[in-house]
Design a protein that fits this description.
The chain is mainly beta and 443 residues long. The chain has one helix and 41 strands. Strands 1, 2, 3, 4, 5, 6, 7, 8, 9 and 14 form a ten-stranded antiparallel sheet that branches.
Amino acid sequence: MKRNLVEKLTAILLLLHAANSLFADNYELYSGTITEGDYVIVQTYALKNVISENRFAYASVTVTDGIINNPSPNLVWHIAPDGDYWTIYNSSVGKYAGGTSTKYIGTLLDEVTDYARWTVTGTSTYDFTNKGRANTSTNYLRRNDSGFGCYTSSTGKALTLYKKVPDDRETPTLSIANQTVVYGSSFTLDTSGLLCGDITLTPTTTAVATADGLVLTPQAVGSTVVTVDAAANETYIAGSTSFILTVTAPAGLSTAKEGGTETVTLNAYGYATFCSLYALDFSEADDYSAWEITDIEGSTITFSQITGSIKGGQGILLKGSAGQTLTIPSRSSSVVLADNLLEGTTAPTYVEGDTYYGLKGNNLVRVAASVVPAGKALVAAGGVSADVKAFTFVFEDDEDGIKELDNCELVNSSNCHIFNLAGQRVSKAQRGIYVVNGKKRLY
């Protein structure tokens, strides 16, 4: 029988605990313009409905995740509008919080007078100034070690409010489709179809986009997850969702650049990758050459020369003398390099680590996660073995089937087999014709 009694008492306690949780009064950190409701008023400690030595007493409260759970009725104040002012009323004692004609003093009033009226300003922390003491500097509701009272604005700090959460608040409606925006423009979240509290946008990859309120501003071409946090308010509980923002590059143009030229400086090895938004013309190039990548096989990259005009937005490799500055004519063209494996960047472009190769010196290396500047060219790493540490550059020439070989000295002998025309293997090609990896090359 004792065992049954214990089990019944345990069950009752569990039910009481569940009921207490179900009907608990939660007071949530408040932000925004103040509205009528029940609040806990806090400045490190909570304002209490007790006067001690001519000041309002204060009590400690526990805040967990921005919520005060089941505060004492002595700490709960109903803030309500009174014309252009607000009153602070505690139902446990049936009195209003107010000031007096004497500075620093706080008191409880039975009825609303100017000393019970307050002006309230702020949207995250709040200043309460007393109407009855409007012509004095000691008219701010503040707290010091003596308690809450009417002090100057330099005493303590502005107040934090925790508002009672309505029991019937709804779950927010947060349905946002993935979005695409062109670099150079911005995206503003349309909240007209959203049912929720105030929204905060947080991009995961700030190298791609940054947020200012509801506006997302692209920083680079790429994609980022954007977290959408909706704050709780009187109607809705807090909620969260996310969407993907994709920033695309401006499309290459068929038109010529104003001014008629592009200027590019080659590196110390006589190379540069390049991409212009505008059409380019290489028909008159004599002391340099332009190339596209048409094939990558193992560690060998094959380049084909560009001898005419091309549409803007396409990645190319420029080859000339070390440190040479090129002036490239820009003339209208709609020609697209159909087999080109070089991808141009018409805008700053964010790349994940090891997903692309970029030019370094006289070879291509895997690019770390970073923003690649506009005006460069990259090669996608897909299909290229991670074991490849350096490439052989092969520049095709239509005359006599002879091809020019470059930078083979950077490649391990296992990847680059070089023979002279006598059939002798050599470690490094000098000037002349060689058989490299079974094919005749001019070096």
